[in-house]
Amino acid sequence: MTVSHLGTFTLGILVLFVGRWTNAKIPFLRDFNIPEPVTGGLVATVLLGAVFFVTGVEISFALQTRDALILDFFTAIGINADFRTLLAGGRPLAILVAATFVYMVLQNLTGVTMASLMGLSSQFGLLSGTVSLIGGHGTAIAWAPTFHRDYGIANAAEIGIAAATFGLILASLMGGPIAKFLINRRNLTSAPEEAFDVGIPFDERDTAIDYFSILRCFLVLNIAIGIGLALNEALGEAGFKLPSFVACLLVGIVLTNTVPRLLPRLRWPSRTPAMALFSEVTLGIFLAMSLMSLQLWALAGLAGPIFVILAVQFVVAVAFTLLVVFNIMGRDYQAAVVCSGFGGISLGATPVAIANMTAVTERYGSSHQAFVIVPLVSAVFIGVANAFLIRFFLSQF
Question: Domains of the chain: which residue ranges?
Fold first, then answer.
């Protein structure tokens, strides 16, 4: 049974409602900064899994609308990023890039070591390393034919998808508690009166957003996405392949740093409550749709060894985030928010990182720099570095 585009989108909204309601009713979830779309998405995943195991009915979803939402979200992130912040974030960005590369090497070594201890091939370990965890579902699917053809792993796609799925769930649950621990332990506070990039603080949910502020967001986002998609197509024809959302993110950055200066009287929507709310809603529905579409029944047969490897990967990710990332990023509130985002990308994906940071900042205060450097590291650097690392590790084993 396949749910249509409209049905999937509608269910995604309902699942987000469920997540918001559940978090509001269960203080534990809110206190530990579990993102609302993650709560709702996991509830839906479990219910759909129960339907399959009881009735045998397999429910899948048409996800083209979900993929369009992520373009809106990343374009909004770009529109909120001014060059002054990017320049100020140059050193922290370089530090986080270096730390991420070290972590990626560590993640592959962990996967290979654990696979060897269980009598599995090194390639199985790589599939449970950066191929599927920090790389996500897209990287796992893209590399599966290579593992199947060249290394004889017949179910490489299934292994990669299973690891990416469980990793996504773990990443969704680890970032918020890490930030809570750091903020409370060190009594960290945010910079006063800094505008929000994504979401609105809990105590300002009644902020007035007028008709024209929403309309400006739609207009600017659509223009930026149109240019971004055209740019991405041109780059693809020239041999430079990038995910569509990366091109839209870059176009958003360029526009927000040129148009307001050329047309100073124009009311540009960068870092406005309307853009922050728009970003939160698109991200929330995207994540809700992504999590509710996870087919747990298809992964049950691979759960054993993958659970063992992921349990160790989870411990390594938490330890690296607390002991390395927080310290080298400055041991302040910004660093704690970056840690919540790093928890998202270390085992999951960029949207999870942003959702983790959104949950933290809505509770404790904004952190503009974190919302600039974490997406840049995750969306731009990781893809390039991961391709190099996967090839390097495959050549060694």
Answer: 2-396
In angstroms, what CA-CA distances link 24 with 30, 114, 341?
A: 7, 39, 22
pLDDT higher than threshold 90 for residue 72: no
Model confidence over 191-214: pLDDT tens digits? 665 655 555 555 555 556 777 888
Which tens digit of pLDDT belongs to each residue from 143-190? 777 787 788 777 777 778 778 878 888 888 888 899 999 999 888 887
Let me know if 66 is exposed, middle or buried by CB neighbors in 10 A (0-12, 13-18, 19+). buried
Residue 3 pairs in a beta bridge with: 61
What does CATH list as the number for 2-396? Answer: 1.20.1530
Rounded to the nearest 10°, the torsion over CA 361, 354, 382, 65 is -170
- Mean pLDDT score of the chain: 82
Give the whole-angstrom CA distance, residue 73 versus residue 58. Answer: 30
- Cβ atoms of 335 and 325 closer than 8 Å: yes
